[in-house]
Design goal:
Length: 350
């Protein structure tokens, strides 16, 4: 039998999406094959400190992972050579890092840039794609420059709101006001009058100093997953979200999960094929690797408008990404195996 790979799963983090990360990490930990992998569980607390933990997936999911016995970790970096040590000085072998970190300081290119700088193998998109995926304004601009339709939008610093107020009114209401960099629909407000702008911007500014405001799209939300394999890209089934509220907000996603996700979506073949082609193109222009989920809007006249690209989509067994890939014949366990294999392949070629 081949020697097991040592996989360091990182979760938690100092971001607004800390709790989302815990759910995804629990899903990943339950699906990793214990016959193939020795898992090193690394929890990052909201202050940004790294700890070695022996917590179970259930304890991580319930945010009960951090105990007094957890060992604080130190990562010593050198090009193509690194050491992960606990506070007693004992070193741990790690073959590949598997970041399951949503949001800022984990999914936005900061961690990826550090790992790339020191040639440390890791799962998922690199620094450039992660940065672009997190920054919705940059991603929208890139898409538009490449002929991909997006809803009309504007981006500005929160401190500039008084100077921008009149120019923003070129946009047609209703609009969504959101942090330019963020995820999980945190800090997003739908406004129907311009009198609501200040409160919406103040809400978004709690999460980012840059604000994105865009016209609401009349239509449905659809998505497509992409997985990098040794044989090229595999695209999952297209899904469609049936909402019980104005938009797919944090409550709909994680609390009162009454939204119905139809997977595969019962759409005309030409719409599904167009969505897949768009997902592939967005993968290419964002320079992605590993995995992404592309989210778009489908209008009543069957135009597709780009919404966002998620470089680390939700990773529970019932999340949209695994369900899409499952419909393409790739089970969750195989997704994880493929991501780890691709990370090690890239590491050898770095």
């Amino acid at each position: 039998m081949n020697e097991k790979l040592n996989v360091a799963v990182l979760f938690g983090g100092c971001s607004d999406e800390y709790s989302v990360s815990l759910h995804s990490a629990a899903g990943v930990l339950r699906a990793l094959d214990p016959e193939r992998y020795t898992v090193v569980k690394i929890g990052i607390d909201p202050q940004g400190d790294w700890f070695l933990t022996s917590a179970s997936a259930a304890e991580i999911e319930a945010d009960q992972w951090h105990t007094a016995s957890d060992q604080r970790l130190r990562l010593t970096l050198a090009r193509s050579d690194f050491e992960l040590k606990d506070e007693t000085g004992e070193s741990m072998d790690v073959d590949v890092f598997f970041p399951v970190l949503h949001g800022r300081n984990g999914e936005d290119g900061t961690l990826q840039g550090m790992l790339e700088l020191f040639h440390i193998p890791f799962v998922g998109c690199g620094m450039d794609a992660s940065l672009l995926g997190m920054d919705k304004a940059l991603s929208h601009q890139l898409a538009r420059q490449n002929g991909i339709e997006v809803s009309p939008f504007a981006v500005f610093a929160y401190s500039e709101i008084d100077q921008k107020r009149e120019s923003l009114k070129r946009l047609h209401l209703p609009c969504f006001v959101k942090p330019a960099r963020g995820g999980s629909s945190i800090g997003i407000t739908k406004i129907n009058t311009w009198e609501e702008l200040d409160a919406a911007c103040a809400c978004a500014a709690k999460h980012d100093r840059r604000i994105l405001i865009e016209e609401a799209v009349s239509g449905e939300e659809i998505g497509c997953s992409v997985l990098e394999t040794p044989d090229g890209l595999v695209l999952g089934a297209v899904d469609r979200i049936h909402l019980n509220s104005d938009f797919f907000d944090y409550e709909e996603k994680y609390v009162d999960t009454h939204a119905q996700v139809e997977c595969p979506a019962q759409l005309p073949d030409f719409v599904s094929e167009q969505m897949r082609r768009l997902a592939r193109k967005l993968w290419e222009i964002h320079h992605c690797q590993g995995l992404v989920r592309v989210d778009c809007f489908l209008t009543p006249d069957q135009r597709i408008l780009f919404n966002e690209i998620n470089t680390l989509p939700g990773m529970t067994a019932t999340s949209r990404y695994p369900r899409m890939m499952g419909q393409a014949g790739i089970p969750f366990e195989t997704i994880l195996d493929t991501l780890i294999e691709e990370a090690l392949r890239r590491g050898k070629n770095a």
